[in-house]
Specification:
CATH architecture of the largest domain: 3-Layer(aba) Sandwich
Number of helices: 16
Structural class: alpha/beta
Number of domains: 2
CATH class of the largest domain: Alpha Beta
Mean pLDDT: 95
Shape: globular
Strand content: 15-25%
Radius of gyration: 23 Å
Largest sheet: 8 strands, parallel
Distance between the termini: 78 Å
Number of strands: 25
CATH topology of the largest domain: Glutaconate Coenzyme A-transferase
CATH superfamily of the largest domain: Acetyl-CoA hydrolase/transferase C-terminal domain
């Protein structure tokens, strides 16, 4: 049987395909723009005949119909590895549970510990050899598909076909069902306009970046704003090795800054595990031999990251305490995002020859009532530690950049207070004194 005959034999409507899901099953939905919207809508219609079907996804852009159709969570129970803005709101409503992880271990979790009864994801159309490209979610796809009892693919005509190093595709012979249908254009996420604080933060980071450095920009607005501003700098011959490729990399490429020519590993290739952004980004990624999308078990491996000399990692956080513990995923007990690959790149960049890892944040924020709050805290109270103090490296706010590596508790306190908003420095000094991490000789 040829691949097209096998394709036709496995072709089903979404309603037919989701009949394979049974009560009590674990169903995986993959990630970001590879979310299977047609299958999700069809499965939501089966709500009243199914019980305790559990779902995993991450960075879902919403809406997820199985969640919206069952606020009781008796029929469908959704969980995420990393919160998008939409999933954060689901957590706030009690409709989503978080799964702690670091991205480099995601495949390991599936291979060794997890059950996947049905895996569903959207993929690019099958090629003439019988292969479907995992597209923008390659980083998390193959391990899930390999572990699944049943694999259902949803062909999305808008997804780019992204070149890969390995594990970027699946053959029709490994698939149980294929569904087709008309899709809306892919969601777009252009870079936000830079604030004055963003510009100040970027101004403290850019001088640390050398020509030929390889960049990782984390998930979130600020790293991508910083990356976009790098495109306006005098830097040249930059490389890309990153968990997530967003529009900042496209801007750097268009500005002639991103060439990958001086990378010390995978030279000539911009490497990523996930990709989403604007339509222009998807078009740039489509069949681009200058890009390679690979599993996050490889892309986020600190030993692989460290093979890039002058590796520069730029991520954001929510808060830091005076001990140098970094929280990038919760505000108190409220789930905001997730660990993702931040700890992977903090570790890998520190191992790189000439490498540096920067964690960025504004020094303060103003809440909905107009009250200003410090992001530098005396100590955490329920906030989840994403990066332990023992691995803290460069912290950056609009007031400066400080390297915490190897510093004593009192040196950390002084450096972090210098990064805090001036309105909070006196009370932070008082807290540091009470916590016995302040020297009388410290600057006031």
């Amino acid at each position: 049987m040829g691949v097209y005959e096998e394709y036709r034999a496995k072709l089903r409507t979404p309603d037919e395909a989701v009949r394979l899901v049974k009560s009590g099953d674990w169903v995986d939905y993959s990630s970001n723009v590879c979310f299977p919207t047609l299958l999700d809508a069809a499965l939501a219609k089966r709500r009243d005949e199914l019980w305790d079907v559990k779902f995993r996804g991450n960075l879902m852009l919403g809406p997820v119909q199985v969640v919206e159709a069952d606020p009781s969570r008796e029929h469908f129970f959704y969980n995420t590895w990393h919160c998008s803005g939409y999933e954060r709101k689901l957590c706030d409503r009690g409709l989503c549970n978080f799964i702690p992880m670091v991205f480099r271990n995601l495949g390991w979790y599936y291979t060794n510990f997890l059950t996947v009864n049905v895996a569903m994801m959207a993929v690019a159309p099958m090629d003439r050899h019988g292969y479907f490209n995992f597209s923008c979610a390659t980083g998390v796809a193959k391990a899930i598909m390999d572990k699944a009892d049943l694999v259902i693919l949803e062909v999305n005509e808008h997804l780019p076909r992204i070149c890969g190093g390995f594990d970027e595709c699946i053959h029709i012979s490994e698939v149980d069902c294929v569904v087709e249908g008309e899709h809306s254009p892919l969601p777009e996420f252009p870079i936000a306009e830079a604030t004055e604080e963003d510009k100040a933060i970027a101004g403290f980071i850019v001088p640390h970046i050398a020509d030929g450095a390889t960049l990782q920009l984390g998930i979130g607005t600020m790293p991508n704003v910083v990356g976009a501003m790098i495109s306006e700098s005098d830097l040249k011959d930059l490389g890309m090795h990153t968990e997530l490729c967003g529009d900042a990399y496209l801007r750097m490429f268009e500005a002639g800054k991103l060439t990958n020519r001086r990378k010390t590993f995978q030279k000539g290739k911009g490497v990523t595990g996930l990709l989403f952004g604007s339509r222009a980004l998807y078009d740039w990624a489509d069949e681009n031999p200058g890009l390679a999308i690979e599993p996050l078990s490889f892309v986020n491996d600190p030993a692989v990251i460290a093979r890039h000399d002058d590796m520069i990692s730029i991520n954001s956080c929510i808060s830091v305490d005076l001990y140098g513990q970094i929280c990038a995923e919760t505000a108190g007990l409220r789930q905001i995002s997730g660990t993702g690959g931040q700890l992977d790149y903090l570790t890998g960049a520190a191992m790189s020859k000439g490498g540096k890892a920067f964690i960025c944040m504004t020094s303060s924020f103003v809440d909905k009532k107009g009250v200003r709050h410090s992001r530098v805290l005396p100590r955490f109270d329920g906030d989840i530690v994403t990066d332990p103090r023992s691995q803290a490296f460069w912290l950056v706010t609009e007031y400066g950049a400080e390297n915490l590596a190897g510093r004593t508790t009192w040196e950390r306190a002084e450096k972090l207070i210098s990064l805090a908003h001036p309105d909070f420095r006196d009370e932070l000094i008082a807290a540091a004194e009470a916590q016995k991490i302040w020297r009388r000789s410290n600057k006031r």
